[in-house]
Structure prediction request, 233 residues.
Amino acid sequence: MKRVLICEDEDNIRNFVLIYLKRAGYDVVDVNSGELALQKFEEENGNFDIVVLDVMLPGIDGFTVCKRLREKSPTLGIIMLSAKTQEMDKVNALMLGADDYMTKPFATSELVARIDRLYQRVCMSSASNEQSFVIESGPFILNMKSRTVLKNGVPIDLTQVEYQILEYFMSNKNTALDRASILNHIWGENYYGDYKIVDVNIRRIRLKIEDEPSSPKYIMTIWGFGYKWEDHV
Ligand code: CA
Prediction:
């Protein structure tokens, strides 16, 4: 059963999302505060695939909840909602481990489409394929079956989105990939977000994989175009 936890204090929005998601076949639990979201997550032993999380909440804010949930589960899908339009919010959310971000007002159908997509990714992480598939590059070993990446034999803690970006890069070694391709490949053709989400994720991945994130040698920036995975043999 695909399960979603919605944390939103505005009743109208929460109820709308609830109705749409139930109609789309999700099992939905809804709460109206961050404290309750964390409590529910604990009570149900983290048995959720996706959390839809509002930023502005009456008690602890959505960013804090996002950070705590991400600490509990690296594979949970997290989508944040915010009425604010400041770029900083988006960057904050993604740096704290959210997978996606929507600015209010949004079309509920668009949110459901993104949840569907995120759910597919979350599922891929637990689905076991018949044959394992491994890509090696420099100190890295990427395993498509377990969806893990090792650096010098040590597992790197990655979210599903980060893993997927790395898989895309490492499957296209030494190839310049433009931001639009990365966006389409990871978030889907109908994603209306901007390229910022790509850049922020790259920044986060670099912190995790590069020896010196400020002067990267694996994920190279191609100015005015995109990024390239540099294969160090
Ligand atoms: Ca709110």
